[in-house]
Amino acid sequence: MAKYEKGVSVKDISRERIGILFSLAEENKEDANRSARYVEHARAISAKQRVRLTQNQKRSFCRSCGAYFVPGKNLTVRVSRGRVIYTCKECGRVYRIPIGKRQEL
Q: What pLDDT sits at residue 2?
């Protein structure tokens, strides 16, 4: 068997696996340790293969502690002064996301 199949990119495979890991984290959001572990694996694949995470994937976990965000459980969401403010309840990290004119949340 060939090391790489013709027409299949390693980055495409890694993007697919990252998507699968984030969907598993979403399914298991009640178990904080398991979902954080899925996010950790997805970030490792992203870093190793130099694949960027999508905007939705980036905003679904805390970059400081690695916790998968579940609003109301470990995430506080506020809207103030034209910004959406995410506050992680695990580590206290605050993310301020500007609201653009045509940006959908």
A: 59
Q: What parts of the chain have a pLDDT lower than 70?
A: 1-5, 102-105
Q: Could you give the CA distance from residue 49 to residue 88 in angstroms, rounded to a whole number?
A: 28
Cβ partners under 8 Å of residue 48, min gap 6? 14
With CA atoms as reference, report the closest residue to 66 among 88, 98, 97, 94.
88
Q: Is residue 75 helix, strand or coil? A: strand
* Residue 40 CB neighbour total at 10 angstroms: 15
Q: How far apart are CA 97 and CA 94, in angstroms?
A: 10
The 3-state secondary structure of 33-54, one letter per residue = HHHHHHHHHHHHHHHHHCCCCC
